[in-house]
Amino acid sequence: MSAATRNESPPLGATSAKISANRGPPFSAEAEEHVIACCLLDGSDTIARCLESRVSADAFYIPQNRLLFDLIVKLYQKRGIVSLEILVEELKTNRQLEMVGGFPYLMQVTSKIPTTAHAGYFIEKVREKHLLRELIKTATCAIEQCYVFSGGLEEFVDKVEQDLFKVTQDRVSDSAEEIKDSIKEANTVIAKMLLKKGELTGVASGFKDLDAMTFGFQKKEMIVIAARPSMGKTSFALNVAEAAAIPKPGKADGVPTLVFSLEMSCAQLALRMLCSRSRVNLKLLRDGLIGRDSQQIADLGKAAEELKKAPILIDDSSNLTIMEMRAKTRRIYSRKRLGLVIVDYLQLISGTDQHALREQQVAEVSRGLKAMAKELDLPVIVLSQLNRASEKENRTPRLSDLRESGSIEQDADVVLMLSRPKNVDEKFQVAVGTADLIIAKQRNGPVGDLKLTFLQEITRFENFTF
Prior knowledge:
- By secondary structure, this protein is α/β, with parallel strands linked by helices.
- The chain contains 19 helices and nine strands.
- It has helices at 3-8, 12-21, 29-41, 43-52, 63-79, 84-93, 102-110, 119-147, 153-168, 179-196, 208-214, 233-245, 266-278, 282-286, 295-309, 322-336, 358-376, 389-392, 407-411, and strands at residues 222-227, 257-261, 312-315, 340-344, 380-385, 414-419, 434-442, 448-455, 460-463.
- It has a nine-stranded mixed sheet, with helices on both faces.
- Strand 7 and strand 8 form a beta hairpin.
């Protein structure tokens, strides 16, 4: 091959540039429309997540979407509330309605989705496509500068590195903070402890021996309540919800509490709480053995009035994924400023990948619940099943008995285990009047065993009495 022939072949870089020139920039119209739809469906939550992920109007490739998102963010910062009606009025005021395609385009966008459960995925997709476009722009500019390079290699390479860093520096959120800020928070906690002199620093459980060891359920913590079926996990959790949301006379307002009940309906839980609070035997009530004019009916009415005023919310949706649960909690938190979340129970929550191994799904759910506690700065109480090992071996349950995944044990800050007393026969595991509450793990406090009184006829746990 002659030198002339060799010179006719284009350089590798030129071929790559030509191929790239024939491709369109990466973007996803569907993802952009889904994000805007989520913003209008639940603006306060989705917009906050976009800002947290550093997704700005520039991240939208389609001009109409870029204009819409920019206006949505401005409305959010000005009013805190965004809806389709408000957006339309603002577009009319700014004479921009036709610029975005008028009502037909807005209806096309807003009819995309019925729920914001997958908002996180589409926010990430918009951010990803924007990052790719910025990398292409920066890399193309670097290639062009390489062809006209005129000297000063070290300075040139440093400039290219700086340009790339500007693109990628927002790829991850800046969550690191100086220790002096954390020390300030720790000093604030210490000051509260000294001021309260042994009083609770977290949400009260209603059980004095438990609160004495934990000082209440603390913010950012995941508390696991584990037991075998029919040992009273749900009853214990409802007793805690009642103690948190209905303060004792003379105390401050109750703590807004959200209960996810994946197994029982709202009506069933409400009936349980009514009978437990009023100390009325549910079986006698069902059998019609309680008179209409009896004291027990009056007690039920009083309990009903107390529970109506309590800031307790119940979600009895079934087949929830961990992402859906976190999205729901965020939305409710933005309205009610929750102080406690209870999940009944962990093994009924689905992972995002239905084809993954069950152990991997449970691990994802466990991590998600812990992340939710940290994100919303509140305690999350999670009910969990124990495997049969402790029953088969006739022993006290331990951490390794947590069912389906060791990640629950790792993620939990506190693990409480309900167990029948060691001297009780197998067939009386529920009927017995006492229960052992084992603090099997506590990151910031002691572990040990406590006793509780269990009143089976009203499904209620109380402080142990001799």
